[in-house]
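Sharing a chain and its predicted structure for anyone who wants a worked example. Both blocks are below, sequence first, tokens second.
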Amino acid sequence: MTSPRPAADAWKDQVARRFGAASAGYDDAAGSQQAIATRLAEQCLSRLQERAPRRVLEIGCGTGFLTAALLPALPSVTDWHATDLAAPMLAATRQRIEALGIAPERLHTAVMDGEAPTLSGRWDLVCSSLAVQWFRDVRAGLQRLIDSLAPGGLLAVTTLGCDSFALWQQVCAEDGLSTFASRYPDADRLRQWFPSASIHEHHQPLDSEATGMAFLRALRAIGADSPPPDHQPAPPAALRRAIRRLGARSGGTYHVLTVLAERPCDAR
């Protein structure tokens, strides 16, 4: 069963609504997101080969790409808690896992803001694929999740880096416009914040060579178009100029940052 959603701020409510509205067509528009989740799952499994995690917390499960890549491969897991801001995404995750024949009692879902977790207890694994960029404070949010790990537990998350959509950022800058990506961290910043963690980065191509307005529509198709609270909306005329400048070029790539952090076995 899905737990009711706690009160949240207006921006997080908007994020939840837009991802919820996109849930039905998300899989068809999110090939890049699935590729990123698959890569993260491989990194998790390489770290968990000699462990037997039982309790897992997943932040921002979406339609279940990461859940489906990891849960069947971790038979020791008895309690997988998949969470998301959007209830329709949780329903899609449950359907995906049921289709795999996974025992339903192994999967629990809850509407929850991963930046302010409400589920209690310690976790053997905390994982998340492309949800952390929706945190108001990435550093504090990630530290909170690291602190929730059981001794020997693993945090494995991907988030977007500051070089995401580089060409789109470039054409917007020519008109003095900022983009969502301007608030994303770079790998060095993450290393400063979490010196004991392993930080990796790679670039994932967009699903298609979306150009001009098609680039923005592609983001809207997956629900990823909620401007952060401090973002200044572009005047329509300036936005049209930026779209024309982008022209036949793609908006860029996803700059993916992966954080792998372990809690020492002797931690209390």
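Comments welcome. Residues 30 and 98 are 21 Å apart (CA to CA).
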